[in-house]
């Protein structure tokens, strides 16, 4: 009997020891899983070099894994100014805002209507000890449209007006490119023969007006959605005046003497030794095409003298 009681007591003792050990192990396991799996770290899959255009919102995406109870801040590197902490803005410039979806890993700094002065480095910082941060480089550019060719075009009546517009320094294809004549959008239904071909990936748009008439003369403007506009003046002229069709980088001057119009087209480049073309066209039109500016001045004087005679 005593032996049996002793065995029961020993068994009871071992049960207590085992239970105590199990509780300790269970507590350590719970303590382990209650801790973050690891320290916060940055997801490097986000874009670190960002280009934005003036007036279009700039977005810097910072992705932090295992953030836990830490806070994410955005800091402007050039003056170490704290812009945001969490979703709160800590600057008087309300163009800066932190965007975050609860439960998500992404903290986005949005800059509304950025300007070139906003270009620079911004840091996404996590309040660990020591702090960790990730740098983002923002470039704010002025996107401009350009119409290829001269700023003033002379088109023979009956020929086609062909204008090509390119959006320069645009980080993304424009949503649209509109063409205006004067202050109004080009009206396709006003007359036939007007077509526009816009290629978003190449950021170009081509306006073609077939069989141009004098009424098609005017100021044509190309206006992409996210770029400054560009304009060209088109003159549609009756009769044959091929010298009025300007090409390349030549500059043109035109004067009116005794109701006779004289047009000069010349290059300001150095003398190349090429033969100088000189053509005398229809009455009331004298066109000089020269390859040197000092030759042009000399021959212009001769033409003026002949016109007055």
Report on the structure:
This protein is α+β, with helices and mostly antiparallel strands. The chain is 16% helix and 42% strand. It is built from two helices and 23 strands. The strands form five sheets. It has a six-stranded mixed beta sheet, with no helix packed on it. A five-stranded mixed beta sheet has the order 12-19-18-14-15, with no helix packed on it. A four-stranded antiparallel beta sheet has the order 1-3-8-7, with no helix packed on it. Strand 20 (251-257) and strand 21 (260-266) form a beta hairpin. The longest helix has 33 residues, at 2-34. The radius of gyration is 37 Å and the shape is elongated. It starts with a helix and ends with a helix.
Essential attributes:
309 residues, 5-stranded mixed β-sheet, 16% helix, 42% strand, elongated
Count of β-strands:
23
Strand content bin:
35-45%
Q: What topology, given as strand order, has the largest sheet?
A: 2-10-9-4-5-6
The backbone outline, from C-alpha atoms, is: elongated
- Mean pLDDT comes to 76
The N- and C-terminal alpha carbons lie at a distance of 152 Å
**Structure annotation, total helices:** 2
Report the major sheet: 6 strands, mixed
Q: Helix/strand-derived class?
A: alpha+beta
Helix residue percentage: 10-25%
Poorly predicted runs are 28-36, 246-297, 303-309
SSE arrangement, N to C: HEEEEEEEEEEEEEEEEEEEEEEEH
As a whole number of angstroms, the C-alpha radius of gyration is: 37 Å
């Amino acid at each position: 009997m005593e032996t049996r009681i002793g065995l029961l007591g020993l068994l009871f003792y071992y049960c207590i020891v085992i239970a105590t050990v199990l509780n300790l192990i269970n507590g350590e396991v719970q303590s382990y899983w209650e801790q973050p799996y690891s320290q916060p770290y940055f997801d490097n899959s986000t874009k670190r070099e960002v280009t934005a255009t003036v007036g279009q919102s700039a977005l810097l995406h910072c992705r932090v894994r295992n953030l836990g109870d830490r806070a994410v801040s955005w800091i402007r590197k050039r003056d170490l100014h704290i812009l945001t902490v969490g979703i709160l803005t800590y600057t008087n410039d309300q163009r800066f805002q932190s965007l975050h979806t609860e439960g998500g890993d992404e903290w986005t700094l949005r800059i509304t209507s950025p300007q070139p002065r906003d270009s620079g480095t911004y840091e996404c910082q996590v309040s660990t000890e020591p702090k960790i941060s990730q740098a983002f480089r923002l470039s704010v550019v002025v996107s401009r449209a350009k119409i290829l060719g001269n700023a003033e075009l002379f088109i023979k009546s009956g020929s086609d007006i062909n204008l090509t517009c390119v959006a320069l320094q645009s980080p993304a294809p424009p949503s649209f490119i509109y063409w205006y004549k004067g202050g109004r959008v080009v009206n396709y239904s006003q007359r036939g023969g007007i077509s526009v071909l816009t290629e978003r990936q190449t950021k170009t748009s081509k306006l073609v007006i077939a069989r141009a008439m004098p009424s098609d003369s005017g100021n044509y403007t190309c206006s992409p959605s996210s770029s400054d506009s560009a304009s060209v003046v088109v003159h549609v002229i009756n009769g044959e005046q091929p010298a009025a069709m300007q090409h390349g980088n030549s500059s043109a001057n035109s004067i009116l003497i005794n109701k006779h119009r004289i047009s000069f087209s010349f290059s300001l480049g150095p003398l190349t030794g090429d033969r100088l073309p000189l053509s005398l066209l229809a009455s009331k039109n004298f066109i000089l095409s020269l390859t040197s500016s000092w030759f042009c001045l000399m021959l212009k004087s001769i033409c003026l003298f002949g016109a007055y005679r």
